[in-house]
Amino acid sequence: MLDHLDNYVRSQASSLARYALQEVVVNLCGWIPSLPGIAVRGLAYKSIMRVEGLPGIESGVRVAFAENIRLGRYVYIDHGVYLHACPGGIELGERTFVMHNAELHVFNFRNLPHAFIKVGARTFIGESVIIRGQGGVTIGEAVLIGPAAQILAINHKFADPSRHIMDQGISGDGIVIEDGAWIGAGAIVLDGVRVGRGAVVGANSVVTHDVPSRTLVAGTPARVIRHLDHDERPGDVADELESWPPMATAEHR
Fold first, then answer.
1. Which domain holds residue 150?
2. Using one digit for the tens of pLDDT, what is the confidence trace for 15-26?
3. Tally of CA atoms within 13 A in the half-sphere of 237 that contains its CB
4. Which tens digits make up the pLDDT trace of 37-65?
5. Beta bridge partners of residue 80, listed in sequence order
6. 159, 117, 157, 158: which is closest to 134 by C-alpha?
7. Which positions are annotated as active-site residues?
8. What total number of domains does the chain contain?
9. Residue 115, C-beta contacts closer than 8 angstroms, at least 6 positions apart
10. What is the pTM (predicted TM-score) of this model?
């Protein structure tokens, strides 16, 4: 029984003392509604997180490893958001919005070397978005992430037919989404992908390869639809896309 309790505490905070402080502060302040609650949490959560200025944190926000969470100035976190920041932490740049029921989850207990989530300034993370950071997720400034999108920097290994997939371990190469990109509602960005600066990922697309800057991609798997600066189709920009063969091959057109 004690072993189970110890495992639970270690899944929520770096020590029993940190867990106790985190739970006391959240349970005392996390339920207070409206503007009084935002004001109280803006001050009280400085004791458990690294906070600049006074963030807007709504009621019902759940946190684990709060000591690994860093909030820039004027960050807004909506109702029902879950931030799990073990071990490499979660960093939200100033004026970033995280809307209700979003989940930012590092949760790395298999010792992947680059487990973190870092989000730049003025980024908008929509309702029910899931970001899994076991392989490391870097999101730039002024990025739009639509409702129910998923950014998944983690893969399960499955090559060994003699073992259950659950028992074969995981891998994480990481995901980068550059400044000014827009990830459409319901889109899924898979591990190992870089989405270029100012690119647009269509709603419900599945991104399996890198996305060139200033292009629109859509579909499953996502493919280049056009170049945004010139409204050109892929055939008209073949030379530019030669460095991005996964997106420009004939099988994806």
1. 2-252
2. 999 999 999 999
3. 23
4. 999 999 999 999 999 998 999 999 999 99
5. none
6. 117
7. 156
8. 1
9. 86, 87, 88, 106, 108, 133, 134, 135, 136, 172
10. 0.88
